[in-house]
Amino acid sequence: MRFNIIAVTIVLLGTLVRVLFGLKFQYWNLAPDQIASELILNDLINSQLWSYAKIIHYPHEGGSILVSLLGLLFKPLFQFKSLVIVAFLLDTVSRYVQLVVVNRVFGKKAMLYFGFWTIVGVPLILPWAGLSFGLHSISSVFPFLFIYLIHRVHSSSKEFVADGIFLGLSAWFSYTNLIFVPIYIVFLLHSKTKLKNMLWVGLPLGVLVLFHVGIRVSFDTGFGLSKFSLGSIRGESFNFFEIESYARITKVYTEHLTQISLLENLGPISTKWVRIIWYWMGLLGIVLFIQRSIKGKSKLLIYPILVLAVYFALYAISPFYLEWPDFAHYINARHFTYIIPLFVAISIVGLANNQLPGVNLKKAVEYGLVILIFPCIFSAYVAYKKEPTKAILARPTGWVLATKFGHLPEELIRINSNHIYDEDEISIGIGWGTATNLFASLNDSTTEPKILKPKVALALKLLSQYQDQKALVFEGMQYAFSSEVTPRLDSNIFNHRIRPAWNEKSSGEKKGESIVVFL
């Protein structure tokens, strides 16, 4: 892909907008996963105790290794904001690649329209420019790369081998990218030498998948209290046999896509109607895109549509699906940062390059692109006018750290000695996270004693290792069983088992100390 000065200019304008938003709202202070990762990397440098668990976020997010290594590279200059710089860097590169692909595959006019949209995007996307975790927004470049690979000429086995390597590495980066595999199989079935090409693609893909599985099984990724299964994502698994979840697919198209354009209230303007008009204009672009592919008899143009369809269907049946209005927040709607750029790009291509009869109608539809772009800009302006939240989510950061290293109290004590964030609040969060990971699925009255008792004993054992922070970690465990947090734990476990056992253990230790002093 050749250097494109127009794309660079557009991308830098977009980066400027995102930096302005970031400096005002400092979303990274509201991102416990990112704060926790900064603390872990800082400890890695200070202690020189390297481990695989410290540079990978969740086991299914191989891309977090790249993020962590870049974070370490920028640590000397940016300290506890190194991952913020990495996020802005990767976001900028991602948008540049998106524009170059649109230019190469769909033409300069589509690239200019799409580029103008990317300067602001939608309010949902803007906060994620400065956030490295999760990888949804950063990974939005992969659907564009996939479209580019599909559209390029496959004249020899080298192209198919390269495709297999891409499929394997992209899936390693984030399991979200596994959506490309079934779509690529459809592409292969339309190739001339199906079996031969399948072998050329399947060999590097299979090797990379096996290599990833081997590393995931062999290397410690943390999460000793959670013990995620090999097929899970953050401890959650897809259930492909729940009929109810398939009924949600239509909701993704009729509700989520309608709402995604504007997460902000536009004041005197009817937000509802702006969203509806944006949504229908986007769908019109998709329809015109499909019409163009049929008229031009280009089978390759159907693959971007398949990417959208497969992704929306998988989101609908995933354990991460949320209904509106819970969906109406940039954190809860984060999964859509992966696919919205492609949705808008295809809509813009359909509208800008429409083949409708009559010059006037053709131009009118093309100018309808304004509806896709300007409401998003105005919505971003309204979002920018809001007052920023000054809080730093230290307690949830402790929860994240406990989820990762709750089985290693000595590690957490050292990581929490940062003198930057509220160490007491992080300690409380560690207690909260430890209890959640141990008791989230248990019930005092129905869980078998042979399962519950070892968990309680482990909680007490871990708690006793926190030295001067015991009281704070214990407070966090109590907090985990309160009605203030989710998931709701059975408070009887704490009231009838943990608290009495801890009080008995503490009184025994105090008696022992008294005897030592007396002697």
Oligomer: single chain
Poorly predicted runs of 5 or more residues: 513-519
What is the global morphology? globular
Biggest beta sheet summary = none
- Terminal CA distance: 79 Å
Number of helices: 23
Mean of residue pLDDT values: 87
Helix content: 55-70%
Q: Please indicate the percent range of residues in DSSP E strands (runs of 2 or more).
A: under 5%
Structural class: mainly alpha
Number of domains: 3
DSSP strand tally: 0
| SSE pattern | HHHHHHHHHHHHHHHHHHHHHHH
What is Rg? 26 Å
Task: Characterize the structure shown.
It is a single chain. The protein folds into three domains: 5-152 and 240-384, no CATH class; 153-222, no CATH class; 394-509, no CATH class. The protein has 519 residues and is mainly alpha-helical. 66% of the residues lie in helices and 0% in strands. It has 23 helices and no strands. It has helices at residues 5-25, 32-47, 52-55, 63-78, 82-106, 108-118, 141-151, 157-173, 180-189, 194-218, 243-247, 249-259, 271-295, 302-317, 340-352, 359-367, 369-384, 394-405, 409-415, 423-439, 449-463, 470-480, 491-518.
Summed up:
The protein has about 525 residues and is mostly helical. The protein is built from 23 helices and no strands.
